[in-house]
Amino acid sequence: MAPVLPFSMSSFLLSCFFFIFLLLSIEAYRRLDLSFLSTGRKIIVSRRAMMLFIGIDVAVAVGIGYLFIYHSGPVLLEYFYGVLFYLSTVIGCLLFVPIQNVKKRIWAAVVIPAPFFVLGIFTHWQWMQNVLMAISVVWVGAFIFRKFTVSRMWFSVALLAAMAVDAYNVFVATAPSELFSDAQLLFNGDIIFGSAILGIGDFFLASLIVAGVYKQFGWKRALMVAVCIAFARIVLRLLIPSLEGLVIPYYIVIVPIALVALWLPQKHSPAVMFTTH
User: Can you say whether residue 18 is alpha, beta or left, with left for phi > 0 and alpha for psi between -120 and 50 degrees?
Assistant: First the structure.
């Protein structure tokens, strides 16, 4: 049996892993090239049509997720988690694989992550699951903030809303007693090092934040934000030892750091952070 790490060491390793993920997110923003998506005939889509499409897409995703979580067994839910993370990883590979031919690029994106997911499924290695789940969302911030126009004000509002929802889910909401626990399922969204855990949602939000700060202020401030977000959990527990063992929604740590970084005065900081490519 592998030795059980003390919580302080587990927390430190998780913070280091989180920091490496954020560095990769910054590098993803720096390297992302969407020119291969510009081939073919240009299609003009109205803002209303785009919002309708996004709304339908979100509704379908939420509906399917609800059916899998509330009306399925552990086996079906495990398949759902695995497919979801695999498809997200495929998208990331599609964006970054250095192949100019689009068909070959698609094939490479589908094939490259497959053996790693197979290995993770058959071995049940937690470190492999940690890496695959994190890699699956490392491209999100870079893609969204390079592709779309985002107002700093509305981005801040979205961050506050996400923080409120996360706090509600942790402190107020309770899952129905008849639901089974997904704690033991593969690719369940928990990044685990020993007894220290962060949800994939924390990684997702942090990817958005560092990409936004990078675009707005450059790599130095993005790096500072990455350090603060990744190691804030350790600093808080050192300053307030009574927090050890408590379940804390990490959004209430991440979001204030992000807001300070986004609104801290600096010359030539436009209100619109991202332009549509």
Answer: alpha
